[in-house]
Specification:
By secondary structure, this protein is an alpha/beta fold. The chain is built from 15 helices and 8 strands. The protein starts with a helix and ends with a helix.
Amino acid sequence: MERIELQKIITEHTLFTTMLFELIKSLLETLDIKYHTIEHRTKTIESLEEKIVRKNIRDIKEEVMDISGIRIILYYQEDVDKVVDLIKNNFIIDEKNSINKVDLYDSNEFGYLSVHYIVTLGNNRNVLPEWKNYSELKAEIQIRTVLQHSWASISHELIYKKKYEIPKKLARKLYQLAGLFELADEQFSNIKEEHNLLKEQIRNESTINEIENSEINLLTLKYSFEKESSISNTIEKIALEAGFKSHRKKHDESFSEIAFISDILGYKFVNEIEKNLRSKIEYLQLYFKELIKLSSVPWYGSKSFYLTLAMLLLLDDEQLNQFNKKNKWDANIFNRVQKAINTIKNSN
């Protein structure tokens, strides 16, 4: 085939790859399937020419199925199953040329696990005007976890693409690692399940009153300070009355900062935060007003951010520097906070 014809095929697939990438990303987001990343690529003309020569290809449309390629990298093994269902529901799968590498190994064997599908557009989509020109094009879709991707990337870096190319000693080490990565994938899934169970327990109304007596962690902080009776609501009201403006965006990272401040102060339980902040209500009112006074631009924040600001008032200078060394706030903002804290403490 002439190079100009190959370039035409590449151009057609380049457009197809981009549309396929956007479609799959949209489907994942619609189904709320969290992913690490989605990669897409179209073979270069040089890569295509090399494959044609190496494999003595006569019919590109029938023999080269990976000109367009999508790789979906997920966090958890159970998400692979969800994406497999998504692909099956939205595309026609060429079963003969697709591979689920889980099926390649016996129970006593380990190796690279991944799902590779060769697909064409499903019947509900290939008749749409925007997809009609791509109805016969094929693409390879790879689905793997982050750990599977790490193993594949490292082994690929060693340039061992075929089993017979790998020295026996190195092959054994690679497959040992594959087993460890597979076990790690299972453990991450177990941790995720336990995490979700803990979230449900904390959300449960029968246990919500016990949260304040719970040890401090991101989950107990989040759900405790979302309660209507929480000190965080009082602090938010103080901040808004002082002149702060609400920010629609949640600052969930603030809970990590609150946990860190609690650790600096030696607090172990959520109720210690409540107790100590409630004893400082009068100072907090003056403190937030002072922050507004020191700033020439508006302050924007969320409930958790106001709570973080309030807890900074409980720190001494050394502890404040310890906080900032770890969290690296903007210098102008942190200086205003430090100055406001010193003003309030020196006036009392």
